[in-house]
Design brief:
Layout (H helix, E strand, L loop, with lengths): L2 E5 L5 E3 L5 E3 L4 H13 L3 E6 L20 H13 L1 H4 L2 E2 L10 E4 L4 H4 L5 H13 L3 E4 L22 E2 L4 H7 L9 H7 L3 E2 L9 E4 L2 E4 L5 H13 L1
Parallel strand pairs: 1-4, 1-6, 4-5, 6-7, 7-11, 8-9
Antiparallel strand pairs: 2-3, 10-11
Helix pairs in contact: 1-8
Length: 232
């Protein structure tokens, strides 16, 4: 059994361009689906957040429409409420990568508020990428990659093939004209080789030990890829 580190946002809102706060957090499916896959494979999950705060779930992600009906929405909410890993996270600043076999970042708009500028997360991502350990990042989780700056000022993910929540999806979701910046634009600006599939359809990009998923529907295949790499 290996320990897998899940790095979640500690932000319960995203500050929009007009200064107002949009309620958010992490996206439930992107945390629960890989969590259940990793646990089913016999591995242990440790959740880390900035400051060790209990990660806030985006309440919208618990809606029936996003979970295939109310029954599964209730099940997902129960998993999050009853799993001690999500209720008792460790401090991101105290994480030692050597203790973990893989690292995973789910999305939700929360990472755009805190992880995008979190130096501890940036150092962890830089180390994880160079370590060769499986590193999975989904949806808005790649916002955290913006903080992965090397000592020479370059971004660790420049030139890497990856994906994330697209401009098209942000537009269709209704926030593109309200946010301060768009994730796809920022990833392109840092020099990443951004790839994208159809909006809302599962789409995964694998580049060495880096596994990225475009949207919530991509969380299950990203988890599958991480587990394949762990068992290889």
């Amino acid at each position: 059994m290996s320990k897998i580190l899940f790095v979640l946002t500690g932000a319960d809102h995203l500050t929009l361009a007009d200064g107002t706060q949009h309620p958010t957090g992490y996206w439930a499916e992107e945390a629960v689906t890989p969590y259940e896959a990793v646990r089913a494979a016999g591995h242990e999950v440790v959740v880390a957040t900035p400051g060790g705060v209990v990660p806030p779930v985006d309440r919208g992600s618990l809606a029936a429409d996003y979970n295939g009906g109310q029954e599964n929405a209730d099940r997902v909410a129960e998993v999050l409420a009853s799993s001690p890993e999500f209720q008792h996270p460790v401090k991101l600043s105290e994480v030692d990568l050597a203790d973990y076999a893989a690292v995973y970042y789910p999305g939700g708009h929360g990472p755009m508020e805190d992880l995008a500028v979190d130096a501890d997360s940036g150092r962890l991502l830089t180390l994880a990428l160079s370590s060769g350990k499986p590193l999975g990042v989904v949806c808005h989780g790649p916002a955290a990659l913006l903080a992965a700056t090397r000592e020479d000022g370059t971004n660790a993910f420049a030139g890497r093939r990856l994906t994330g929540f697209t401009n098209a999806e942000e537009t269709q979701g209704g926030l593109a004209d309200k946010v301060k910046w768009l994730l796809q634009d920022r990833l392109v600006e840092l020099g990443a080789d951004f790839r994208q599939g159809e909006p809302w359809a599962p789409y995964v990009v694998v580049d060495g030990n880096l596994v990225t998923g475009q949207n919530p529907a991509s969380s299950a295949p990203v988890a599958d890829e991480l587990l394949k790499k762990l068992s290889a």
